[in-house]
Amino acid sequence: MSNKTDTKRSNFSGKLGYVLAVAGSAVGLGNIWRFPYLAAKYGGGMFLLVYLILMLTFGYAMIVSETALGRRTGRGPIGAFRAFGNKLRYKFGGWINAIIPMLILPYYCTLGGWVIKYLVEYCKGSTAAMAEDTYFTGFIGSAAQTEIYFLIFAVATVAVVIFGVQKGVERVSKIMMPALIVLAVIVAIYSMSLPGAFEGVKYFLVPNFKNFSIMTVVAALGQMFYSLSIAMGILYTYGSYLKRDVDIEKTTTQIEIFDTSIAILAGLMIIPAVFAFSGGNPDALNAGPSLMFVTIPKVFESMGFGTAAGIVFFLLVFFAALTSSISLAETTVSTFQDELGWGRVKSTIATTVILVGLGTVTTLGFNALDFIKILGMGALDFFDFVTNSVMMPISALCTCLLIVYSAGLKTVGDEVKLSSKFKREKLYNFFMKYLAPICMIIILLSSVANVFGWIKM
Ligand code: TRP
Questions:
Q1: Is the pTM of this model over 0.70?
Q2: Ligand 1 test: best mutation among 20, 22, 25, most atoms within 8 Å of CB?
Q3: Are 114 and 270 in contact (CB under 8 A)?
Q4: Phi and psi dihedrals of 453, rounded to 5?
């Protein structure tokens, strides 16, 4: 990556390398699978608006904070918290950041397995069969099938982490990512041109206050954490590798633009198509997590060159998912290495045990183990909820408290100002001090209350 003979160029590629690395981790199933269904479920344009506001204020502050603290301390989350004290609260703050990726990885691989299945079936030319309403439910109802595909995806992830061919994957994803954008644009244009699709475009892009509820904010916040890979230690770690001359303010903006564009494109692929195929029936939007696996095949089937489109699309989604899942696994492995002093092999084995154990429970939660309900949720929804709606607000709150009361806002400010004017410093300070903690507490309480049925939102 570095080019010693040409320092100017090496500086640039250092920055580009960083933006691409973070974008590669950020862009994944969160953008293509999770964002569209949440937007559909929680108010369309209203959700989009809330998401954008949160991302530009809160998300921005969180990315800057984590990156700057990582660079300052030269440590991942646990070490960064410890750099400011040894009390229990610092340990808690560090570990909650580190545990979240361990809980996301298993269900990420469940979904990754579904993506492989779809890729395989498109390669076999089952385009028409896959467009049937019952195809998806039939597939996830099969314990043997889903478990096998889950294991394939999990093994692929762990294999890359062991053999460390990450460089190779990154090279591939530099081609795959632009290809994904081009294909997404084509599919989005096609999807918007379907008869009846315009209502969907309107629903997705135009905010309607009737669709607002506190759950819109809760869901948008959880999605923002998930999609930008914040509140889970990743950016501390990446920040710790970052050179001092890279402008954190600018890279943060670029990462946000990249990640959000892909999420919006995915929304434009899926939501108008749902309207077109359901004859405008909004109930179809409640398909939830399965939206991508039900709607996209219908679009492809109607396209004429659907088999080819299906192969390319799911191949690209597969790569986006694999690069993200690799960095989730890497983070877990490096936490074990750094904090428990384990070797790489032992750490990888431990990660695999957690991954296969929890992942199997999640995967079979749709068939053999579907009687297991935690708080009324299946395993996948439960892990998704616990991490995104409960743990991430707490972990983000820990980061805010660490900065405001221990590290000091000035520490972050000074670090950012090493290489940037930090034009938004006042805004940043205001947000970290007042808005963020209050927002997070409200959100945490309301999402928990919602699950226990204490309040109806
Ligand atoms: N941001 C990724 C996505 O949109 C998923 C993800 C969440 C992730 N947390 C992560 C990826 C941590 C890598 C590291 O799909």
A1: yes
A2: 25
A3: no
A4: 75, 15
Token pair, residue 225, equals: 């954490």
State the pLDDT at residue 282: 63
Predicted pLDDT at 305: 81
- Strand, helix or coil for residue 268: helix
List, as one string, the DSSP characters of 191-227.
HHHSTTHHHHHHHHHS--GGG--HHHHHHHHHHHHHH
CA atoms within 13 Å, Cβ hemisphere of 124: 10
Q: Which two tokens stand for residue 93?
A: 């703050």
Pocket of ligand 1 (CB under 6 A): 25-26, 28-31, 101, 104, 226-227, 229, 232, 234, 324, 327-328
Q: What's 378's DSSP letter? A: -
The tally of CA atoms less than 13 A away on the side-chain side of residue 403 is: 33
Q: Are 226 and 390 in contact (CB under 8 A)?
A: no
The rounded Å distance from CA 226 to ligand 1 centre is 6
User: 302-360, pLDDT tens digit by residue?
Assistant: 878 889 889 988 988 998 898 889 889 988 988 898 889 998 889 999 999 999 999 99
Q: Which two tokens stand for residue 432?
A: 């970290």
Q: Which residues pair with 377 in a beta bridge?
A: 374
| Chain mean position to CA 316 | 16
Helix extents (H) in 211-305? 214-227, 234-240, 248-277, 291-301
Residue with tokens 């309040």: 455
CA dist 312 and 315 (Å) reads: 5
Determine the distance separating the centroid of ligand 1 and the alpha carbon of 318, expressed in angstroms. Answer: 14
Please check whether residue 197 is in contact with residue 273, taking contact to mean a CB–CB distance below 8 angstroms: yes
Q: Angle 245-101-354 (CA atoms, 0-180°, nearest 5)?
A: 140
Give me the long-range contacts of 424-427 (CB less than 8 A, separation at least 24). 424/60, 424/249, 427/57
Distance 29 CA to ligand 1 centre (A): 8
Closest residue by Cα to atom 10, ligand 1, is 229
Query: Distance, CA 362 to ligand 1 centroid (Å)?
Result: 18
